[in-house]
Structure formats: C-alpha cells, structure tokens
Records
---
Amino acid sequence: MFLKAQLQWNVIIPADNLDAKGLALQKAIIVRLMDEFAAKKAASSLGYFLAVTSLDKVGEGRVRQHSGDVLFPVTFTCLTYKAFSGEVLEGEVHKILKHGVFIRCGPVENIYLSHLKMQGYSFVPGENPIFMSEKAAKIEKGVKLRVMVIGVRYMEAEKEFQAVANLDGDFLGPI
Amino acid sequence: MGDKAGGKGGAKSALKTPLSSGFELNNGSTKSRKGMNVQFEFEDRGGKRDKAANGGKNPVKKPTPPLQLRVEQELPENVTCLMDCEAAQVLEGIQEQMVVLSEDPAIKIPASFDKGLQRAKRGNNYTSLQSVQEVLQNLKKHGVADSELCLIANIHPESADEVFSLVPSLKGKKNKLLEPLNSALDELSKIECSA
C-alpha cells in the first residue's frame, strides 16, 4: 500500500554551500535531502522510500562548532510503499521453487508463497518448473497472482522487506 | 478479469506448519545464493491457550479468525494511506520532471522509484481520480477506515461478497454497509478503464 508521510529530518550543509542570497542554499538543502532520502532507501515503519513530493518547512540553521557546517531541521512530505499483513495485493511470479514461489509487487521483491498455502496446486518439475492445479490452472514465471499477505519482516542490514503470502481463500488466485 | 480461484466453495486452509519457525530458501539440492533463514512474526491464534483451558483433553480446533488489516494501528503519526491511483498521479508528475532532474548529476532518485511507479500505474484503472475519491468518501461516512477504502479501490472488486471476503474487518458492519457498498461498486465500475 502506498503511504504519504510527513517527516522531519536534519540536513547538514557544508559551509561552502552557504550563500548570502539564499537561492543556492535552498537548492543545496533540497539536493542534500534527496541524497539522504535515496541513501536511506527504506524504514521499517514506512516501507520503501519512493520520492520526496514537497518541501514543507526549513527551520533555523544551527552551526556545528567543529566543522562549521550548518544543520537545518527540514520538514518534508514523501511517498513510500509498504506491504501490510492482511493486505490483498497482485504480484508477479518471478521464481518457482519446489516448495513455493516468489512473487514481486512494486519494490517488494521477495513475497514467498509456500506450497502449503496453495491448496490444490502441485509442483511440476522440468526445465521451466510450474505449479499446476487440479483444474489445470498454471502458476509459472510471469503469472499474476492475487494473494493475501500474512506476514512481513524488515531486514535492517539489507534495508529490504520480505513477506509471506497466502493463496487459499475466496477471490484469491491467478488473474 | 481472468480465472480467479473464486466462489464461496473455496476453502481456507489452517496452518499446517508453524510459519513462525525459521525456514531456508532451497532450490532442490542446491541452496539459494543468499541461503537466508527467515522468521516472521504472526498473530498468536490462541492455539496454546485453548489447550491449556481444556486441560489437554481433546483439544477442539477452533477455526482461525481471518487476518485483519490493521494499517491504522501500525502507522506512525503524520502518515496516511494512498490509493494506487493517487500514488500514480503523484509519481507520474515526478516522472515528467525526470528529464530536467536527470540533467543535474547531484540530484539522486531513490532506487525504488521506478518499481513504485510501475506498481502504481498497474493499479490505476480509473478514468478520474476525483470521482474515485468522491465515491469512496461516501463509504467513509459509514465507518470504513482509510486503509480499507484504499484496499477496495486497489482490488477493483466486482461484488460486495468479494469485498467482505478480502477485507474481513468490514464483516462486522455487513448489514450496515451492504447497500452503500453495492452503490459504491456500481459507481466505481462506471469510472473504471477497460483494460
């Protein structure tokens, strides 16, 4: 699900970017903010960072004594994407394994659907393995599935989310 | 839309293996490159408590309650949900500026931007964002939460049954919601683009 968040971060501007006229300073703050935003990549409470949409407020700068840099508290609005437990989403199968499949949806690449949560489907090995149902419905690479997310985990070190999904339920399945 | 595994006959399976235990990613005889152990946190379904209450005698398996969407409880302050169509409008606006933005090498675009944009575009099947917002605002008056509204808009349901099945948190208000929901779905189907 997409989220719109208003955040406050501290942006540090090196002394040589400080300009009396102010325009270059404004640009420097925006560029530095976007740099940090892109570097942070994701957060456990907000999901994957997608874009800064507006700069709402720039507070008073505070000079850092040893370096001469200036710290500005900046309030901005951004767009993020996060998968939630209980959410229904449509993803594309990108990897088929013996015990389940991996689905991607937006920036979330690793949504795991176990064969235990795919009632009626059995694994068909081969050069291009697939899962086939009793009614001859196929789940193979590239197929779009509507699933319900039943668990989400954030890995701080990799800055990535992983999720577990369920296909067993009314109105869930291949699209 | 396609061959969905739909219908009221579809059974929900109980968890056969406790998914709260870690599991490895394996591809037959070889381990995946990452070989990660993953553990997920799930809601306690009360299985252990039930056994204790019965004193270990013939524990009765209660049907597990459906997983509820609890976005509002998990979200920090100053964070709101957006529908796919709303996000698509914002992201497409940024994409239009991309030519100008990319001329300046100092400006960095987040790695997830493109994937987020593709996702939003795929979920945006409506001709008018404003109409979608107006239709769903009517449902909000009947006590539907923002996250539930977003989910309804994103899944493009064809019937009220589909909504109640995929958004179990609304089942409690089924009697109150049935009529306004049917009306909202009729309106949404009129403003949906044909794929």
---
Amino acid sequence: MILTLKLLGCIFLACFLGCTSALHEDQAGKFDWHQKFIGPIKFVVNDPNQPKRILLGASNNVIGAVHGNTGNILYRHLLEPAGKLLYFGVYEEKQCVAVSLLPENLVKVRLFGITTGVLTDEWAETVVTATHATESNGKVYVIDASEGALPDVSVTVLDGQTANTNKYRLGISRGANVLCDLSGRYLICAQDKVVSVLNLMDGSVRNHQEGSTVSYISTSGSGEISAVNLGNSALSSTYIILENQKAGPELLPVKVSPQPGLILSQTKTEDRTLLCITRLESSHSIQLNVYNRNGEQADPKPVKVSSDVPLLSLAIAKVYHYNSGYGLVAFTTDATLIATRADSSVASGDAQIEWSRQEALSSVLAVEMVDYPSEVGPSWNPYQASLDVISSFIARVKYEVETIVSGESLYSSAEDRFGLRKVIVFLTAAGKVVGMDSTTGSIIYTFVLPDFSMFSDSTAQLYIQRPAKYTPLKPQATVIYRSLSSKGAMLLAFDPVEGKPLDEPKSYPAILQTQMIGHAGEETKFIKPILLLDQTGTVHTYPAQVKDVPNSYFFVAHKGSSPKLEGYDIKYMDNKLKGRLLWDLNLGQSEIIGVHAKIQSERVHSQGRVLPDRSVSYKYMNPNLAVVVTAEHEAGNINLYLVDAVSGALIHSFWHKKCRGPVHVVHSEHWLVYSLFNEKNRRYEINSVELYEGQKQSNSTAFSSFAAPPVQPIIVKQSFIYPAAIQHMTHTRTEKGITNKDILLALPTGGVMELPRIVLQPRLTQQHYTQQIQDEDGVIHSLPYVPELPMPADMVINYNQSVRRVDGIKTWPTRLESTCLVLVYGNGK
Amino acid sequence: MPSTMWGCVLLFTFFLTAYGSVSDKLESDFFDNPEITLQLSHSFDNPDAGVLNFVPRGSITIRNFRGPRFTSSQKDLTLNDLNQLKKIASEDGYYFLKTTIKTPSGEQSYRSFTHAKSLLDSGLSDIVRVNLNPNGDIISVSYAMARNDFYSVPHHLGSNRPPPQKFNTTILVHHGETGPMPDTAPYLEKLEHERLAKERGEDPRDNRSFFAKYWMYIVPIALLVLLSGASNPEEGGR
C-alpha cells in the first residue's frame, strides 16, 4: 500500500501484502515513505542567534523550522486545524511566538523555544474578531480591521495577564475595497488613493494621498525598520515610516524604481538594520537591493540570485545576513519555497537557488495513480491487438527507440513485475500538478496550470483518460478547473508520466457537472471520453470528435439551502449533444454533506454470499447506486438516501436522529459503511449496511436500473460503537477483487487503522447465536455481535509514522492480488 | 331484522380489516393517515420542444399507507396517444410522469420517467412508489414498470392482441427507517449474567452433563464400591 499523507505537507507511503500484516522492525521504511510539508507560508523569519535556522509560519495554522542549507524540517507543529495563523515571529531572542485565531474568536498565543520547538507557554483571550496581530516588547497586539468595522480599528494588547482594548479611527471612509497590512508597529490601510497609517503604540493616525489607486500592499514585516510598498499592476512607491511624536507617523519615500512587484524584508547585521528590496528580474533571476534606515542605498551593487527552475512570481522574499553575505528565502505564488544555501552566501558575489520545497503538496485537491508504461504486466495489449502486423511492428520499433531516447528512469524495470511502482499525480490547490514516483516519493515533474482557480465548492477534477497499458500510446490524464479570468471551465490534457501537455488548454462555458465514460474504444484510441454538462444544458465532449454517447446519464446534486438531485440524459440533436432533464428529487430543508458513488472500474469477484444452510444470497450490485448524505442542522439529524443515479428511484433511506457529522462513507460492492457522531450517547458509531437481491438473481449478466419489475434489495444493517474519532475512511482495492476488503480509518492520534470489513458485516446477535451455528459456519463469519469494535494497536499500518489532519486516503490496486498501495494525504484546510 | 343488518355490516368491516387491499377505509384510519391524493399528469417526449407539456392522466387517492389502500381513477389512453407512444418507442424516447401532491405546506411535484418502449412492453402496468420519512411525510415518488412481458406471454388472440389502453397502476409505499443503533442492551445483559454466575461460582460456559463433569469423583467411588462388594461374598462365605 502507498500511503501519502499530506499533513502540513506530509506524505506517507506503505506497501503491504495480505491483510493486517504488521511490519517487523527491520522492514520500517522499506515499503513506505513519509514526507512532511509546512503549508502556504505566510511568515518567514530567521533565528537571530543562528540565521541558518529559518522559522516558517503557514496560514493553515502550522509552524516549523527548516535548515537554511538543506531545507530539511527541524521541527514542525500542527496547531488547531480550524485555526488561522495571525502572526509568527521571534519573541525576546530565545523564543518564537505564534498567534492563532480559533473559532468563536478565541485568540491563542503560544511561545516555543526557538532551537528545539518545545512549547514553553500559552495563553488565550476572547476578542470580538481579529484580522491581524503583531508582537512588540513582549506584548501581543491583536487588531480588528475587518471590513464591517472600518474605519474604526480596535487594538487589543495582551501581555499574558491583562487585555486592554483601544479604539482608533482611520482617515478612510466606510466601505469595501480596503487593504490593510502591518509593518512593525504600524497598521497601513489603503482605500483607492488614500493611505492611512496608524501607530499601534500611541494611536496616532496620519493620512497620505497616493498618486494612483493602490491595489496591493507589501510590508517589511516586524523589526526595527517599518517600510511599505504600495501600488498597482503598473506603478509602485516605497516608503519608510518614521516616528513623529506630534503629527503622527510620517512616510519617507525611498528612491527605488517605481516598478510593481517589489518585495520588502529587513535583516540585522552586526551593527545596523538594513531594508532589503527584492524584485523578480526575469523568470530565472532575482535582484536584491539593500538600503539603510534613512532610505539610502547601503550597497551600491545589487546582488543577483539565479535560479535553474523558472519562477512565476514571488509572494514573500526574506533576505538575511549570514557570514557577511546575504541569503534569500522566498515563497512563490505557486507554493514553492526556494532558498539559497546559507553557507555559500558570500559578501558581494551572486548566489544561486540551491534548494526548494514543493509546499503545494500540503493541500491536495485530487490524486490519481498511473502505471509506468511497461512491457511487463498485462500480456494482451488491446491497442496492439487492433493493429495489423506491419503497423504493429512499426509501433513497437518507435516505442523502443523512444524508451532509449527518454532514458530508462521513466519506465519500470523488469523487477517491477507486480506493478508496485506507479506515478502519483497530485492536483493541488495552488494550481500546480505534481508527478511523483510512488516507490521513493521523489518528484518527477511539476507544472502550473494556466489561469487556475477552483470551482465554487473548492474542488477541481482530475481524470485518467487512458491508462498505461496501451503502449505505445501514451497514458493521458486530464484536469478540469475553473478559469480565473472568464469563470468558465478549463480543461488540460497531459501525459501523467512525463508531465508534458498533450493538447492545447480548452475552455468551456460555466459547467454544472463533468463525468468520464467508463469504456473506451478504438475510435478514440482507447481514450475514455469526458462529458461536460454546461449550465445551458449543452454537453461538450473531450476529445471533441465523440459524437454519440448511448446510455449515458448525468447525475447532478445541487447544493444550497434546499438541495435537489437531478438526472439528465444526453441526446444528439441539431449537430450537438444536449442534456435533458429526466427526473428530479427534492431533499427538503437540509444541506448535502456528501455524495458517494462506487468506483466504476472496480471488480467484484463473487456474486453472492453462501449462507450456513448452503443456499446463496445474491448481492445487490447496482453500479448506479449513489449515497447522498444530508444534514438537518436545526433538528440535528443526519439522513442518508440511496438513490439510483440513472432512474432517479429512491432505493432506500436511513434517518439518524440527534447525530452530527462529519459522515465518512465507504461505498463498494454491495455494502456501505458509514460513521457519524451520536449526540445523544456522545459516541462515534460505525454503521454497516448490506444489500442483497435474495435467493434468486434477477439478471446474471448485467444490472439494469430500468428492469421491470424493479429489483427491491433486502437491507441488512447493523451498528457498532467505535471508541475513537474518525478523520477519514476508505477501503482497500485489489486487481481482481478476490481479497477480502479492509476498511482504513485515519484516527486523530495519527494512526491509520486497518479494520477487516468482515468484522463490520451485519451478524447474529447474542440471543440468536448458538454453538451449532459456529460449528457449521467456521469461525469469523459467525462470531456473535459485540457492540463495541476493537482497536488493536497492531492494526495500525503506519506504525510510528503518525499522520495528522488527514484529508484523504487513496488506495490503488497493484498487479499482485492481495496487495494494494495506500496514499494518505492531509493538512489542507 | 335490524339486528341482522348490523351483523352484516360488522362482518363486512371484519373483512375490510383482514384484506387491506379493498379500497375503503375505516373510521380510525382517517385520523392516523389523512388521505392523500396523487395528481398524475404525463407527457410524451418531444425532442424538438424544449419544455414538456404535461396533460392530466388521472388521480390516485391513498387512504392508508399500510397495505397500501388506494383508489385509482385514471382515463384510458386514447388511440391518438397510443400511436404517439408507439412512435416515441420506435425512436427510443421517454414517457414522463409528473406527480403532484397537495400538502398543508404547499404543492409538491415530482418528475419521473421511463422508456416509452418499456411502458408498452408492460401493457401499461406501472408501479408508483411513494417514499416516506419516519414522520410519514412524502419525500419522493419513484416510477417503474411492473412487468416486461405483455407481448411475449401467450394470449388467446395471439399476435392480434389489442394494445393496452388501460393503466393498471400499483402503489407501493416505502417507509423510511431510522438508521441502525448499536444494540448494547443484550450484550450488557450477557455480561451481567456471566458476572452473577461467576459470583455464584458457576461457570456458565461449562454445560457438560453431570457425569462428564464429575466422572473423576464418581469412577473411584464406583470402583471402591465394586471392589468392596466383591470382597463381601467371600466374608459371607467364610
């Protein structure tokens, strides 16, 4: 199993054979790996005693420290997942302070030892609301400059014992479009051309008029020099803020070129503090200029930092002084942390970007895995079977030449006969696609999606349109996301093994739903067509030459206060495909908290279950069955609807009173396992449901949602108490579906628990259980029902490699039955 | 004479209770389940028209969800409609059904469909399935065909069998159930039972017979008795 964990950038991979095989000590790290990330970085500071130690704070409430030479994590703390980091910085030389805003406006201040990362102190205070925070002389300033309150700003000063709130009025008018940022002890707010600067210490305010509209603010952060760069996409101006006791803070212009995109930072040398202005000169070089606190250039010759990889644009650039040279740590807008090597910085020489960290992996939107194109493995290749002898020979020669040209590392070696090595394709929230080798966790490629933004429900889609088994045809993956500029949908097809685009980006109008057809033929070269239903009812296909899609239906779940399910068919008319509404289902006043379909490509080995009396109970395996979970927040109810996504028939419904989410659902074969929290009994419960057709099978070859008379499944259900909270739940997958499935549960303790599904199978209760049944029916199938599920420690598959804040677990079958790859990732939200 | 009549009425009432499918209702059900009328209207799919025109098909009154007991009043399909249905069936089109229910909180309508061909193959025998939540409110209406062998089953008119024109609608009611709950009571009872048994010094798991349990005491005693019994006649003989 490959387990990749994205928690604060944490990936864990494990591979194991059979079910519940605990690892031996000498196997640790052999079949698994674990990568850690910080997240979307907002604060970069250096340890004043040892500038090589770079302290990082990320907006998803994660703090940590990395080594300036290598970028390796020295320590990392995952604070509350629901919190937001307002400030992270150095506190009285020996410590660092993190200020987080938690739900219900609780501000939590924590102090950590700067060298070890050990928590030394913490305190909390409730405020009205908070948007910014800073620290000065051992006091924490929490600032509320939220849009509703402006132009009034309230500043709360916390020192561990007391909290004093002061209110100040800025010189801007009420209303929206106000940008605010902190620079040292000053709050700078800009609205249109007016800039208002507030001194947090004495409350003095001074207004300033800019020459042009201000659309961004960048500041030098906390420190002795308070500087700010204001501007828009064409022009910018830079000021140093000076203290003026009588007239309020004064803006002193710094003579730098008025280009946009200047990033400020400050650094302390032995004797003075310097202001550093960083600019991205070209995609491969960064320029640093150093100024003293009077705004005069301290070093006439700028320092150049060159980079091998192209850089898009910088979000943060922190310059520091080390060994009488300058070092640079920068965070780009595509979520990469880049830095020079601290030891190699020399006095005036130019530097080179030496290490980088792909922090984009800390928030993954979608994951898929593809095999390496390989000669080993499935011997029958449908593509080559469809060619005649000569073209088959030419294709083979071409493929061999390409293999030699592109190098062997791209293709799996002969040792990987079991298909354990795959390429993991990540689609991240930063709009970056990352390809990773599943055996080592090393990054094969990354590329940034043009004009990227997420759909309104914070998602984007990733499909594998053509798997790798059709060599010499290349595998094809496709991402679908929302265009930032046009708000429509964008689609980009690429090779998931090499990371090269296979087609131009395609744009479509705003879409309602996408789906990939489950089968592919020779006419599309074994590419599974993607269908996009737009809001006007037109269906677009990719590849565009697909004209007819028989027996295809769309299932759309409209979220919102009164959710609705809709079904569409697809018909070819007037030279285009049209989606037409077939059915609708109104779910009443509630919120859809999840829609769970089955994995279409999965195989089910056995059609029925043998009962103790030797008769067979056939499984109800409707491939179109979807589970829709809704929450009625006022009444505190959780409802589950089992809906046939094609015919729109409601197959069954479950109603849970006084329960709340999160509801994790595992839906596979003929069964359903879901977890929820019971408010009445205050415990987590796992419910298990099985659907059977009965002693007769309605149709042994194929299932039809339109069968007459309709198949009404027999529902078998049971509930269990789980003694721990559940962060995520999924099931294992194998090639042929012969191996018994296990449920993987991510626990808040950091463990990933493997629970055989058979333990959750609905079974006889104690009263109906007799010795005779056990003698008849073996051991495991007829253990009597025990309401509480066990949590044995040797079922934790990730031994001591804790993975916290899990967002998802992805499993993937290998060519070896009974083995599956597990990827656990987390730390997003 | 009046007493005989009352007897008949009582007897009839008894039959009603026993065979719930008879579409009448008892006084007590009126308060438990106020009757609900499903207004059915249908539309024959027209690929050229963007909006479907629904025309009334009839109504079904459900008097009791248990059973369920209902009365159906539906118009027969006209020959014109039937021809249109056949035409749609040949084009693999759809037949749409809209169910409208008046509730105190307003009017609620549900849209469902089937293939026109399936409707013909079923001989207009359809199933309207009403899904209820645990409170007894209607949450959705599903539509399906009851059979698919109208033309294939043998009929005394052979292939000249007239096409169906009369709707034969079945109502199914599905009660939503509350989800499963952990069944702790019997398990705790069993634990308590075992604890008590232990206090009394019995092992409830040991259900062997008396002899099987104490043979090690019985056999030596029996041997002793046998041996001592064997020596007695000698003494007696002396």
